[in-house]
Amino acid sequence: MAGELPRPRKRPKQSRSAELVRAIREACIRILETEGPDRLTTQRIADVAGVNIASVYQYFPNKEAVLADVYEERLQQLADEATLEFTRIWKLSAQSFAGTLEAIIGMEADFLYQLYQISPDFYQRYHQALDVRERVNQRTQAESNPSWADWFALFLSQHEASVRAGDRDMQAFLARHTLESCLTAALRERPQALKDPAFREELLALLLRYLLAGQA
């Protein structure tokens, strides 16, 4: 299936095996950071990890599967960070409408760019399967918290006096997908824009013009 994330052959079950897989993962990251993606091969991963190549193939069929495992670990770390950041955003949402949107844009753009930087070609190919927002959504709903969609509609209702008249669920839907589409387009066409303050300011202005009453 197109876009399906490469998978490991198996998962480690003992602490010694887990250490081996971690060494392989860390070797992959080190090669990408210091030598570049063109130097990433299973043999090079084995050399940097200090293991026999057979040990790499015991857990991973190819370098793409190692990369996928690197991404899976990073997604879990970002989900942890997002949980903490959402606590701050939740408090901010009662104080500042624009400030909350700015914080959301900043967090999502930062996360996308961090994932992109690990291996640009790999992330461009598999980014739909590496959706940090979906991972966070799964976690928050498992803890009986509102989904991202439900929370955003509640956020608009919380600022009833400022947001223009209309169907809150529809407005939330359009605003969320406008944000997602703009970030995805930036990732595809101009990834450096994700860390550009001017891009983030324009995206914020776009959402504010749509959502706030009295905006041209």
Describe the overall structure.
The protein has 216 residues and is mostly helical. It has 2 domains: 15-59, Arc Repressor Mutant, subunit A; 71-211, Orthogonal Bundle (Tetracycline Repressor, domain 2). The chain is built from 10 helices and no strands. It has helices at residues 15-34, 42-49, 53-59, 63-93, 97-118, 120-126, 132-142, 148-158, 168-189, 197-211. Helix 1 crosses helix 2 (42-49) and helix 9 (168-189) runs antiparallel to helix 10. The longest helix has 31 residues, at 63-93. The chain is elongated.
The H/E string reads HHHHHHHHHH
CATH structural fold name of the largest domain = Tetracycline Repressor, domain 2
- CATH hierarchy, class of the largest domain: Mainly Alpha
Number of helical segments with 4 or more residues: 10
Shape: elongated
Gyration radius, in Å = 20 Å
